[in-house]
């Protein structure tokens, strides 16, 4: 395949709304990026990260800061499934320091939090709860630089961010043009230390992005094209990364797949899987987002396949060969997708995480009432009735074949 003739060490400049640097050694681009920020007058920045992963590139970031006269304040308390309180704290830190730009270092949680803080830096009279309860529509944000440390979210090149409101068990999403990162760095050498489960879960996140982006009512030939290539690359390179975490070629193509998946859903948008996962990890914040998606996507495919059989048969062909694109294949396609997920080590279902039949009505309510999730549900290729949402949750409690045997 063409990948063998593409040098992963040749850092490429890929332009979406963000200028993204992709390749082994892309972290070195932090130097000209900081030069550009300094030249634009942004010499005080807020750094947003988790507690430790930022250290994989911190030396080079500090060197670039020092070289170009950029001073910083560092908020390093972002956790998985970050909260509005952390965003408010980071934004307040930025305002007190006089920061005018944001450097995010990490995966989806730090980058999404950084995007959110970047908005609040321009709207000092607003809070993160105002932002995520959709009480205002921002038109501006401080410039964001995203140094990405996982191959899953695509947030380094899109306009989306997700943050939880814990007391309401809400996990809304926002999407504004003003939070496209100005620059992004996608360097696979920063990801060889990802734990095995995280490698699985972030790749499944990218897979879900395109299963949704190619089947929404907003899907286009472009989102379908990107979806098929994303699935092909994940099918080929995820097993390789699991066998050898230091395989830079595997990390490169999983990272590229994640990036184009981000572009795909930036265009085609999302629907059921993300709308129904967000209540899961809002109720249970320790649940990894990618695992939540993996547990419910077979149920989603079962329900939407009859509405988009030709598209899904084509897009999923790298992991489910032999589909003919007929509505009658829906259950078989869903079961085959679940079998593939099990084959790469993602074997849990909702019951393994403590969810049962007694939780379904609450999850349906959250999916229908959490700010922004109604928009995602409105984009689904089949109408998001309570009955459909309930069915997706119920058939995600146990493996599909086991559930079918019980129903039988």
UniProtKB/TrEMBL annotation:
The keyword Cell membrane does not apply. Keywords: Oxidoreductase. GO terms for molecular function: alcohol dehydrogenase (NAD+) activity; metal ion binding. Residues 20-188 form the Alcohol dehydrogenase iron-type/glycerol dehydrogenase GldA domain. It holds the Pfam family Fe-ADH. Belongs to the iron-containing alcohol dehydrogenase family. This is Alcohol dehydrogenase, class IV.
